[in-house]
Amino acid sequence: MSDTQQDRRQEDGEGRVEEFDAVVVGAGFAGLYTLHKLRNELGLSARVFEAGSGIGGTWYWNRYPGARSDTSSWIYCYSFDEGLLQEWQWSERYPGQREVLNYLEHVAERFDLNRDIQTGTRVTSATFDETTERWEVRTDTGEVVSARFIVAALGALSAANLPDVPGLENFTGERYHTAEWPHEGVDFTGKRVGVIGTGATGIQVATEIAALADHLTVFQRTPNYAIPLGNYQIDEEFRRWYKENYDEIWGQVRHNFSGHDYDPIEKQLQEAAPEERERTFRERYERGGFGLWLANYEDILVDRDANSVVSEWVRERIAERVDDPATAGRLTPSDHAFGTKRVPLEDGYYEIFNQDNVALVDVKETPVEEITPTGVRTSAGEYEFDALVFATGFDAMTGPYNKIDIRGRGGRLLRDKWANGPRTYLGLMSADYPNLFTITGPQSPSVLTNMPVAIEQHVEWISEIIRHMRVGGLGVVEPTREAEDEWVDHSQEVAHSTLFPESATWYMGVNIPGKPQVFLPYLGGIGPYRQKCDEVAANGYEGFAFASSEGANA
Ligand code: FAD
Ligand code: NA7
Questions:
Q1: Cα(154) to centroid of ligand 1, in Å?
Q2: Which ligand 2 atom sits nearest the alpha carbon of residue 390?
Q3: What global pTM score does this model have?
């Protein structure tokens, strides 16, 4: 059957393919705000396609027990609407999955977004037609639509990674991936459960399952430096405080390095006496959150000696909390520097290993050989399970792009262009892919920030360039190859001036076999990045080439 026969073209009355000014792919934080800006503020016609059967992105998919934001609720949200900021009531410092999803569903209703969002629809291809200068977008439901702009709000962490372990399909028990969790929930009471993976997600889910399961086995490939979450209920007084201080709070997070309400201490670690360091570390550890990572001495992520002091300090805390020294040893990282891998926040994780019903298996010591019908066989023997939970992360940042056939000029696939690593200008566009914008894409600050802050910056910048084009009658924009080459080099230089690229992380693509190993997010910080994007715009969109088009306002 030909493509044409398969298509269920969205046609207007005269049999033409339905045309939009913009197609937005994804309905998480990014897609929702994009639709609001483009449709409600710029007046563009827009259609959002979302693969999930509901909106919310990350918070729609990741419904596993313990799923929770690691960013404080009062900044893990949009800031563009004062009424929304003042009216929404967060209940906890770190909101759980359901609360964030409720928030996003509220936003969609408040700004009347749902009528232009088509859920249950995965975009499978997008092809730029050089004659019409429009994108033809196809979906897995057989639809074909045409759009002048595409905004890829695909999510940096939306392509789940299920490792290719031999025998995976033979397991006869229940099998779950944390990022594709059943909506009806899972009852682990009285079951023998295996959790594979000990990243931020594995740590959250294992802690919850340990309280319910008859027995839990945690399969760990690499130990992490997890530090306390420090969650609490928000009372009226505190709520009043942050609502009264929103201007200052957002002023900080929009312009600092991480987009979180933490700033590094303006001092090198070696300048602080041992007692002062101890006080600094202890205070941050006990308060919970990312303080030890993001509000520590300014050189801990760039200077090996400084880092080794804080790394060792966290190792000591792990040893204190785990009763069995051999288990504590296995839980203690030695292969990477603290903070160069996403730091997991935990709420009683280390203590689960003091329970009789919890065991830790180090798969570097005893590798997994296969999944059997009844469990997992390692080189040390077989473990039997009723349920297996894969907390094995994501094909981060480029994964969701590689799943779509995106063809730009000359019909070239984006994934072929990116075969040796992504190439973008500002993490926002790629040369030869005109009018295709990426949100929190590779080489933008993305996962190294509080993401709603980065998302708002991107969406606002993108809507401004589209406004600029419409005012000027410009139909097409794309970055120049020179600007792109410079940004790719700059982004790698910045990363390599830190300790980050030395660690085997998903930031480097190391978790996915065969993935090119280049540092994916931009490490220059959201504040400086925002300034750069603003300067580019103020200089007439330096590094971008525009062309006018007859259909510019179509
Ligand atoms: P997403 O929320 O991932 O939404 C993208 C959507 O695009 C998805 O719904 C997906 O189905 C859809 N999509 C992708 N490809 C297609 C396609 N081809 N066709 C149709 N639809 C498609 N960030 C923080 O800043 N702080 C945190 O504490 C934090 N905690 C996290 C915890 C977990 C468990 C995870 C997984 C991520 C966390 N993040 C956190 C990152 C989080 O992804 C972002 O904060 C934010 O939710 C991203 O929003 P988004 O809209 O960019 O992407
Ligand atoms: P991560 O951080 O990628 O963690 C995945 C975990 O799974 C990590 O411990 C991996 O070990 C492990 N893993 C991956 N593949 C395997 C195989 N084949 N065998 C054994 N163990 C494996 O993903 P998360 O979901 O925890 O966190 C990602 C982000 O999303 C984070 O920002 C959260 O906020 C949400 P490794 O360390 O690679 O050796």
A1: 7
A2: 7
A3: 0.96
